[in-house]
Amino acid sequence: MAHITLRQLRVFEAVARHMNFSRAAEELHLSQPAVSIQVKELTAEVGLPLIERLGRRTYLTPAGDEMRHCARAIAQRLREADDAVAQLKGVTGGRLNVAVISAGDYFFPRVLAEFARRHPGVSFNLTVHNREGLLREIADNLTDLAVMVRPPTDPDTVAVPFAPHPYVIVAAPDHPLAAARRIPRAALVREHFIQRERGSDTWNSMREVFGRRFARLSTTMEIRSTETIKQMVVAGMGIAFLSAHTIGLELKSRMLTVLDVEGFPAMLNWYLVHHRSKRLPPVALAFKEFLMREGAALIGRLVHFDFEGVARPGRGASLARPKTSQRARPRSASPTMKD
User: Considering its fold, how many domains does the chain have in total?
Assistant: First the structure.
């Protein structure tokens, strides 16, 4: 096994973690054939099967399980070496490892760009996950910092809010409710929702906001991709509960409209999360301070949303910074639908 490469181990670890070649390819920003080639080459180097298929399901062989542990151990040692070198370099020249929930990838690269402008020489490793994947990143020490909406509540993590995160109900511009004002929340029980998959940050936020009435909502589809949900709504297949930070382009192009529902937008928070025992390198500490100090204002400039003049037919996609009266509240204070 003298010719095994770090690339092969990294790809195999992702496949072994997801037990799915397509999801591993998506995480690594590779094509599925490229992932398959790396796993095939690693298998040839090991000389034993690493993965076996029984029906439609995929399993690790004993050799595959051993290689998974090996890949994780090597990756951990490399991260520790990287952290040690970063401590010597300080902020300038350091490497920031940050993971973000999928709704954040609509604006987070520009947040990183602003941080990079102030700290030349910093490099970045940004990964995007659903909530389950993000929690694994934290638990497996694969990232320095994580940005999410619903942080874990266990005592081993530190979670601090740094910016408000509004959620809205979106529909196609020709939806019967598009021109309505002050839509009662109870009226949404009669609508067909297209929503994120069970367990995702958006799904959990929706459940919290709707409270006991959540179980009475009609869900026609659960989809893992926010982009696909938006396209289904544009096509008139239903309405959706989405982060206001994900719909800017669709509002500008009038492909989507925000329904004027009582109690919306629902205000939650963006949280910065890391393991309590994690020794943050200087660049991560600097980025944490940057977000706590300027994150809310910066995101407000990058993702404009006018709560009073949301885009509807004939009104245009009015975009402006949230008013101060719409400040973020603790998650427990977010509006809920109660009978």
Answer: 3
Residue 64 included in any domain: yes
Q: How far apart are CA 31 and CA 24, in angstroms?
A: 9
Over the stretch 30-50, which tens digit does the pLDDT of each residue have? 899 999 999 999 999 898 999
Q: Domain holding 46: CATH number?
A: 1.10.10.10
Q: How many CB atoms lie within 10 A of CB 179?
A: 15
Q: Tell me, what's the pLDDT at 233?
A: 96
Closest CA to 206 of 185, 184, 190: 185
Query: What are the tokens at 42?
Result: 């690693």
pLDDT at position 88 is 55
| Full domain range(s) for residue 63 | 6-72
Same domain, 184 and 263: yes
- Considering only CA atoms, which of 262, 247, 255, 264 is closest in space to residue 172? 255
pLDDT along the chain (339 residues), means of 10: 85 90 89 92 90 84 91 82 64 80 86 90 88 86 90 89 93 94 92 91 90 89 92 95 91 92 92 88 90 89 57 35 34 40
CATH of the domain at 276: 3.40.190.10
State the residue for tokens 């910092």: 145
